[in-house]
Design goal:
- By secondary structure, this protein is an alpha+beta fold.
- The protein folds into two domains: 1-46 and 102-210, 60s Ribosomal Protein L30, Chain: A, CATH 3.30.1330.100; 48-100, no CATH class.
- It is 25% helix and 25% strand.
- The chain is built from six helices and twelve strands.
- The strands form four sheets. The protein has a five-stranded mixed β-sheet with strand order 1-12-2-8-9. A three-stranded antiparallel β-sheet has the order 4-5-6, with helices on one face.
- The model has no long low-confidence stretch (mean pLDDT 92).
Length: 234
Amino acid sequence: MIVKPIKTRIFQEGENLVAFIERYLKNISEQSIIVVTSKIIALSENRTAIAPDIKTKEKFIRSESEFAVKTKYVWLTIKDGTYMASAGIDESNANGKLIFLPKDSFKTANFLRKTLQDKYQVKKLGVLITDSRTIPLRAGVVGIALGYAGFSGLKDYRGKKDIFGRKFKFSRTDIADSLATAAVLVMGEGKEQQPLAIIEKAPIKFSNKMNRRELQIDIKEDMYRPLFSGLPKF
């Protein structure tokens, strides 16, 4: 698998996202995945705000969350079926503003896929919208897929046999988040100015179907739920 980050100028709030992508991607090969950081999508949607004080910021966090609890460093929240810090609201590289998550990353990924398929005349094309997340009990961040289109995000091993003939009961591979982590690694988290990337030769199954819930687990079935069950809801 090959992941190529693409250096760009700074994306401006309210700018045309498609035109920006087309400016830096001159050619796209069949069976490629276009990676777009969620930040420039949010900026294109004017999903920003100014918080003059901490109370205003906390109000935004609560309004953007399905669940929010204050912790030592950040607000631990659940939004769009995933846990994240502070509802994904970001202050880095934001020029004094708060940048929220995109309105609907799956919808945007599907729109970009169809638009760019026509532009570059390719049939098998994936689009992946990324953000970064922490993992419990691990330092640092990894990539996560906020939305994607054009490929299956989950590979199911259940019912298949391992090398010794034992059938898998639970094993599934989270393809979308694995690709996001690979992309975020080379795109960077600082001042690299690489909000786009191209993934080629990925071991995935391209598909025209989109299942935005295939990676989600009901909170009642989540194995980590006992860690959070004692937390009060704010």
